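Supplementary Methods. Inverse-folding protocol.

Structures were first reduced to a discrete structure-token string of length 329. This string, shown here, constituted the complete conditioning input.
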């Protein structure tokens, strides 16, 4: 039985990855930090099958202990401060959790189990300002937020540990990926949650920032398979994972409202509060390398993704209205 340690297991990607690895027969260890109130919505259906280890990204001793206890064949470092907008008001916390923490995790692995395979959750936000379209592994980075800057550090320290210590360390440069488990502050889930509330008469407006930003949006359930594939190769490498399609925020909004027969223009209000100090205008990824080397394929299209998320949010509010226990998955 293979053993995997996942940081960020309570998040969107961590929960899908844990399910996927359990299905494959892995023993899954999940790092969780202390929270004042429980936040297990994404993993409540599998929480008894995960071996929980208490730890925090910024506490190296706890990470060393996590690697010692789990004795992993594979480590997936998904934990981070992952909300771009929060990285301006909290730039130092973001640097600690999204940049320095990667070194903490790499050190824990290097000290305790250097032969373990390591996956780092890098991001298309590293590309930032458009230098080349579509963006691929060789496109220069020009991050546009403290989050993007922190991810560039995480990417290069992963490459550096591979080259310095011969570790099997991979960096997956993943473009935006969404699902019904996406946090409510990210634009896709904010939209689908609002569409459900408006449709059910629980709300009457949705306040958004820049509707012109373009993103390459895929389904998280497809993307976690690419993470696993990267660690099954003969040699470690870095890969872009994307759909190869780009859509504006407005297109996402139109499809989401349209899927329940509503006209978005009647409900969406532009609010400066959600406009960022610096924006990433266009993301469009070229994942030819992943398709050719990993045999990775997408299963869920953009339109299917939007509709899946709206349907899930509608069901969530309908269940709550009927007094049923709300299922967040
Ligand atoms: P989420 O925000 O859903 O999950 C983040 C996870 O990190 C949560 O489990 C959170 O725990 C954990 N975490 C945060 N800080 C700490 C800490 N100090 N110690 C321990 N755990 C911590 O992110 P996603 O699942 O969407 O993304 C996973 C990773 O992939 C992130 O690194 C993100 O930056 C990156 N990424 C995401 C993309 C996307 O489109 N989703 C695209 C490219 C990269 P808690 O539940 O306690 O808050
Ligand atoms: P992003 O995702 O910053 O791309 O980072 P987010 O969904 O937050 O923003 C996408 C785009 O939508 C625009 N936007 C709004 N965004 C939010 N959150 N709220 C709004 O009201 C709103 N209005 C317009 C934004 O300006 C932006 O252009 C995600 C995260 O998962 C990162 O962790 C990951 O690394 C990248 O994707 C790839």
């Amino acid at each position: 039985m293979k053993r995997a340690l996942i940081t960020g297991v309570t998040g969107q990607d961590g929960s899908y990855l844990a399910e996927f690895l359990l299905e494959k027969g892995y023993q899954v260890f999940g790092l969780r930090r202390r929270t004042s109130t429980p936040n297990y919505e994404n993993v409540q259906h599998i929480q008894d099958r995960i071996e929980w280890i208490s730890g925090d990204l910024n506490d190296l001793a706890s990470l060393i202990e996590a690697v010692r206890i789990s004795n992993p064949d594979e480590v997936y470092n998904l934990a981070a401060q992952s909300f771009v907008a929060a990285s301006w008001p909290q730039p130092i916390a973001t640097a600690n959790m999204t940049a320095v923490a990667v070194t903490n995790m790499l050190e824990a692995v290097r000290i305790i189990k250097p032969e373990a395979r390591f996956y780092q959750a890098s991001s298309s936000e590293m590309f930032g300002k458009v230098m080349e379209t579509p963006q691929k592994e060789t496109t220069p980075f020009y991050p546009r937020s403290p989050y993007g800057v922190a991810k560039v550090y995480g990417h290069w320290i992963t490459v550096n540990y591979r080259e310095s210590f011969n570790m099997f360390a991979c960096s997956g440069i993943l473009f935006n990926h969404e699902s019904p488990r996406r946090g409510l502050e990210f634009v896709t889930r904010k939209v689908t949650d609002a569409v459900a509330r408006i449709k059910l008469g629980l709300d009457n407006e949705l306040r958004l920032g820049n509707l012109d930003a373009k993103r390459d949006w895929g389904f998280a359930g497809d993307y976690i398979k690419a993470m696993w594939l990267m660690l099954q190769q003969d040699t470690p490498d870095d890969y872009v994972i994307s759909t190869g399609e780009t859509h504006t925020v407005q297109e996402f909004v139109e499809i989401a409202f349209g899927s329940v027969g509503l006209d978005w223009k009647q409900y969406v209000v532009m609010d400066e509060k959600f406009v960022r100090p610096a924006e990433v205008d266009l993301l469009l990824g070229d994942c030819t390398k992943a398709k050719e080397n990993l045999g990775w394929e997408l299963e869920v299209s953009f339109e299917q993704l939007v509709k899946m998320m709206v349907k899930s949010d509608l069901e969530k509010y309908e269940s709550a209205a009927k007094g049923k226990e709300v299922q967040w998955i």
